[in-house]
Task: structure prediction
Amino acid sequence: MRRLAVRGAAGDAGEVAAPAADSTDCARGRHPSPRRLIDLCAIWDPGVFLPAVGWKRASGFARRRLNEAETLNSVREAQLELLEAARPRGPGSRERGPVLRMARQQQPPPWVHAAFLLCLLSLSGAIEIPMDPSIQNELSQPPTITKQSVKDHIVDPRDNILIECEAKGNPAPSFHWTRNSRFFNIAKDPRVSMRRRSGTLVIDFRSGGRPEEYEGEYQCFARNKFGTALSNRIRLQVSKSPLWPKENLDPVVVQEGAPLTLQCNPPPGLPSPVIFWMSSSMEPITQDKRVSQGHNGDLYFSNVMLQDMQTDYSCNARFHFTHTIQQKNAFTLKVLTNNPYNDSSLRNHPDIYSARGVAERTPSFMYPQGTASSQMVLRGMDLVLECIASGVPTPDIAWYKKGGDLPSDKAKFENFNKALRITNVSEEDSGEYFCLASNKMGSIRHTISVRVKAAPYWLDEPKNLILAPGEDGRLVCRANGNPKPTVQWMVNGEPLQSAPPNPNREVAGDTIIFRDTQISSRAVYQCNTSNEHGYLLANAFVSVLDVPPRMLSPRNQLIRVILYNRTRLDCPFFGSPIPTLRWFKNGQGSNLDGGNYHVYENGSLEIKMIRKEDQGIYTCVATNILGKAENQVRLEVKDPTRIYRMPEDQVAKRGTTVQLECRVKHDPSLKLTVSWLKDDEPLYIGNRMKKEDDSLTIFGVAERDQGSYTCVASTELDQDLAKAYLTVLGRPDRPRDLELTDLAERSVRLTWIPGDDNNSPITDYVVQFEEDQFQPGVWHDHSKFPGSVNSAVLQLSPYVNYQFRVIAINEVGSSHPSLPSERYRTSGAPPESNPADVKGEGTRKNNMEITWTPMNATSAFGPNLRYIVKWRRRETRETWNNVTVWGSRYVVGQTPVYVPYEIRVQAENDFGKGPEPDTVIGYSGEDYPRAAPTDVKIRVLNSTAISLQWNRVYPDTVQGQLREYRAYYWRESSLLKNLWVSQKRQQASFPGDRPRGVVSRLFPYSNYKLEMVVVNGRGDGPRSETKEFTTPEGVPSAPRRFRVRQPNLETINLEWDHPEHPNGILIGYTLKYVAFNGTKLGKQIVENFSPNQTKFTMQRADPVSRYRFTLSARTQVGSGEAATEESPAPPNEATPTAAPPTLPPTPVGATGAVSSTDATATAATTEATTVPTIPGVAPTTIATTTTTTTAATTTTTAAAAATTERPPATTSGTKMPESAPDRQSIWNVTVLPNSKWANITWKHNFGPGTDFVVEYIDSNHTKKTVPVKAQTQPIQLTDLYPGMTYTLRVYSRDNEGISSTVITFMTSTAYTNNQADIATQGWFIGLMCAIALLVLILLIVCFIKRSRGGKYPVREKKDVPLGPEDPKEEDGSFDYSDEDNKPLQGSQTSLDGTIKQQESDDSLVDYGEGGEGQFNEDGSFIGQYTVKKDKEETEGNESSEATSPVNAIYSLA
Result:
């Protein structure tokens, strides 16, 4: 096998194939002549190596090699014996000794090893020098030409001359030149210089001189002590662009239709100029198959036409180096013709020649002349064959090759088929070619014989030869050409024949053979091969090196590999003679080769399968006769990277969320990188995607997301891939190519081509139509068909100009509509139906408005659709009144009050009338009722409800349809002292003609007034007499702000405020508390307190246990709602594991917030009965805040403004706390209502994209539903009525059976904030005293100013509004406001979120307490403006009422 001097890293782990030793190797000189005595194909047979010829005839060189081999064999045998002695004798190694000994016994004699070594040496080639700069600089090297000018070197005479010659070598070579084969002395010519460290010649003409003086043949010589290298013979020529000779050209006279050649004859230039023809005005000559330029530059006219006289013709030559264009004097043509008129209309005549009277002629060749010619071309050049023919009409040219086809890959036609170009000509392109010129008069042929010659070209160019001392080699110089080139050898620039003799060198024609080379054999050899068409010159040096082994790779490299992989350890080295290389592991054992190890010829060690035990330090040792070198490689084995949970193929709907898993296990010492590919391209992670360490999530999947996704888990050493395909179910593509067939009067067949279903089968097709008469541009559904259909018969209506489109539907959604079809109009007919929804209702008491739903385009059936309206009084036998109407309504005037009428509406068009219409009963307008209910009786049912009974009115007094009886009631006053109440009227409706009803949701312990009316469609009738009644006491609401504090371990402080709704006279409070420790409960203790007590301090009997407190207020009726709280837990105490259940927080507005260490009591919810007896609180939360402390977790609420006392609600809780079930469910529905709207939220465990429905029913049993899109919370119900009770549930739109529990809530009406015994509060007494003192001071100031005649301007006072941060509100003095929570002047937003429009400041009537303002003598207003009252309240409250404390304060002055 051939061994290389440089052992580098191989690309792939493949073995280098050993070339077989055959006669060709011997002929190529891969071994010296003496080795031909050894048959390289000898057979190894049980230890015997049989030479083919006699051994004794071997040369001295071969004998030396045998001696070296014998010595080497002795050393190896000694090493085997040492290893045998040192090997441990354990189990499994006993047979090793006999085997080794038997191997030594069977070893062949030393000469056999030597012969085998010679066999290997016979295949050895030249040493390759590594590219390492340090080695390149240290090794001696003969010169090598690296750069030189071209052989034919043409220069611009305006520039300096540059002849390039560069070479390398060690030591650096010196340069000299010859000119015309004679030494060129550069020093004698001041214009000539040589570049530093280069042989490049520079000839400078800046100081004068003619470039032509330096023309000639130059050759460069590069020389150092090891030899001389030669450049090519460079022929230097100066570019020439001679002027055109002056000449006077006479006009060219020619007969029309005759051929013509205008000769160019450009002056000879170097290089040859580029020829082109133009007019004297520099316009290009238009060329075609009749007029064209030949390859020689002449302009050929196949036949001359009269139009050719319109311009002149000038030949132009462009010279390359000077970039100049020279123009020849122009030719002018004079065309003789039988038709002197140059009619431009004849130019496009199909037979222009006959039209102009030109005689037709057979073709004849203008170039080349005759019927045959020959042409020679050099191999590798382009062959251009040209045939230009004359004739009338202009002939066509065709090309052929005799005995074969034209080479299609190299042949192309030029100049309108007049020229054939064959590129890169080779010997097989020689032969006979002929061109055929033909027109309708005949044809002619010209044959061209092509001969291909060749300048010399390389078959085997000599290469540099680097050998070790005593090695053999050869230089081969093989070239070919036509004629056959001759080969001339030179050494160091001198002919080989004149060089000193060298016994180790033998010349055999084109090959030089070197045997037993020595240091003195170094030289540069030149091979010059030439024939009459050119020459080739090649340099090849022979260098003999004697270098000890050297390592070329960095020392102590770290190689990390993956377990079970195949790897290769590289150990590049260099040496001459070529070293041998061995590998060892951990500095122990024998050479590594065989089994799991394999050593390649370049020295690399391959480990076929890496195991954990292969980790360690590997040493490579290179040895030759001059020494040895070694290097170490440390091998670390790492665990492989594996994806153990791969992404799976998924099918997803558009808009859903998809997650692709990719969980990876890798070696912890390696850095892992996980990336994703989509369709084998890097994936861009946009806003809709989220990449995590073990997954890829795609939100809102779209059609463009479909494709293959590849998870790439990679480290520095390896990677693993896993691929999954995501199929996106998208909406179908629109149908296309709609076609109408089978056209009939009332039907048509519509056919379409389905679009792509985008991975989700099409389930339905919806056909829509549009007509251009009644509703142009509006599309209506016509019919629906299964997804398997693409053709359907459509039933049509008369007199409709139809246009159709189709929409495809699948599980994902609907496609875009298709493009519309063509229109189709049906013929007309009389209407087949009449308008629907005919009604007769009065809009006034003396009219009746008849209305109906107008007919659409598909029911009109004809033009000019109109309606015949008929009416008459019912049961009067009157004649029908009728009128024709074009719209959809008609008003009958001067009718009696609420009289029934018979009504008919019939459709009619220009084709006729519709069928007889049905009779509909309508009524004329209503008037207000004339009578009121009588004998109204009231019975008090409980503290919040009364029962009513009355006598019904007579039907004739109703004057319309009786809708309901209605009770108007208002709270006149409270039985509690100093409690301001709102007297806003409220109403209770009793639909139908009924004599009794129940009014509920009243305030306990209050005085009420009540009136009854009857209601028809026009409005209320007169009111009955006013009735008064009083509601009894009720139970109070829970105490407010129940707080538990523990200042130390011995005491617990309890504080609370009075109930928000006393609902009677408080008689005391009841406190129940019990100690607990975990699940253990103590004995319950009951304490009773006076109604004015709001604090209690308890001494702890057990410092370890906690306490649970329950506090309620009492009236004469009983105990009310309870507030529950627990004592704070000690810091080191854990939360109890089994705490008693607590009621959900009721989001009721509070006037203040509690500190973080307090726990706010939460009112319990109560369910309503038919007749409510326990008052509650309607939720009015504006904001809810959850506060977490170390003592307890509570929910506190804060309201934006104070509230007034409210009537009891059917429920005070709006949140249904439930635990999340395992199956799909809806829970924790929360309602936050106001007067006219409510916010709804809930929890669910459905998947993304699920739609819901909110269903709510009011107290009049009116059911409404609101569809809710996925992920849309909270939902706001905006069509609620104040004070109305609603039931609500939430269910899944896809499955109505999956529903939340039904909850009940009530919208708010009046907002009051009741507070008992405000006059007994100390802060109120102090505040009133301060206000009285302030008012007294203001009165004194006003009196003094009046006595002085001063003014008190109105504008100065009215421009100062009351700010929202009034100190009276900050200290909590006045918690009560009017019922509608009207803000003070300057406030912005009310509790229900509406913005109250502030009225004009210029009106003084709206201010004060209903009385007129007081003015002084000059008209200025005395005192501050009072708080503006709600106009609605003022209008609805005719009686006087007690002045509220707030109004009293502002009205004092």
